[in-house]
# Entry
Amino acid sequence: MKAQDVCIEDGEPPDGRPASMCLETVHVDAQTGHTGKTGRMRVPRLTTVSGFLTNSATLRFRRTFYKDVSAIDWNDWRWQLRHRITTLEELERMFRLSDDERAALSEQGSALPFAVTPYYASLLDPDDPSDPLRRSVIPTMAERIKTRGEDEDPLGEEKHLKVPGLVHRYPDRVLFLLTDTCSTYCRYCTRSRRVGNPQDRSLSTERWTKALEYIESNPSVRDVLLSGGDPLTLPDDTLEWLLTRLRRIPHVEVVRIGTKTPAVLPQRITPALCKMLGKFHPLWISIHCTHPAEHTEEMKRACERLANAGIPLQSQTVLLSGINDTVDTMGRLVHGLVKMRVRPYYIFQCDPIIGSGHFRTPVEKGLEIIKGLRGYTSGFAVPTYVIDCPGGGGKVPLMPDYVMGRDGDDMVLKNYEGNLYRYFDGDADPIH
# Structure
């Protein structure tokens, strides 16, 4: 293997792109990993290790708090996982915490642990507790308050478990929970009751084998959704083993992966991962995206790699009070996703997990957002607004009122501008 030149200042520009910010290069031996500086210089193109540009906020953050960490290590997803920020002491070194945040991090009792990758931490506002991304991952005391309608398992997943880790709620598809681990824990997580369990069951061969046997024995299952936790926290060879087993089942037509990795750990989307995933088409990926502030150069590159591997990408967004509950914010979110070849798929009403009252909006707010998008942007950029019914009833789509009723044989419709139109909906009798 040949040695490589790597830009260590700006986080490695993608292959073939100008290294406009590169101030120093290093010589990397691909066999040994040893490096040696070759002097300060500017070069027009570089062969790179990770292929990632680094956004300016992340670059400043790394230089301030991880100045002894090379760009090669920073862009290694395993390094990011090993160095997740998990304690109050670590956060206080980087952020000016509010008394509320400090109290929530100091006290025990929250079912959901705290962890955030250094990369995602770099996107948070260090001074503003109301920053949307910061609110979504740093706990506050509000999540200790239980309100009406909340439950540890609001979607009734446990009662639809057929074997450990496999939920069969819909007739033709199953939810396969591969792992209890995420690289970053969202404070509104539907599965806060189980993720982050110190007794990680992610690599239990017995558990996975039972789930595969259940799928094999049920020919009605044509669609398998891999979730968790986050499946992409697992190693490539583990994922490849599982996907190979699933692809041997004749009646499994589609496999989907639900992940937030492109937003919180984009370094995980390596060329090797994409090449491996590309062997198992038709394979779909649903990306959990919260706010347009996540749309960094790193996330764009991660989505580009997945799309170039032939994997259809779609997004799922939880509607969150004070975070993304405006037409403007959601508009910027879906437009940014479309530019990354990610089709907006769902806006979820926030599930009523315990302690989620401060995140949940009125349903009317979601309808207002859909009304503000429909007609004002491309139809494929408008996601479906759904409530996942408590107790296991499944997803129910909600739409603003566009059908105003009937007048004889005419259906009366209201368009996005509020104008009324008639559509003949009677018998097709000749008018003569």
Q: What stands out?
A: DSSP finds 14 helices and 16 strands in the chain. Residues 327-339 form the longest helix (13 residues). The chain has three domains: 4-82, 158-398, 401-432. The two ends are 81 Å apart (CA to CA).
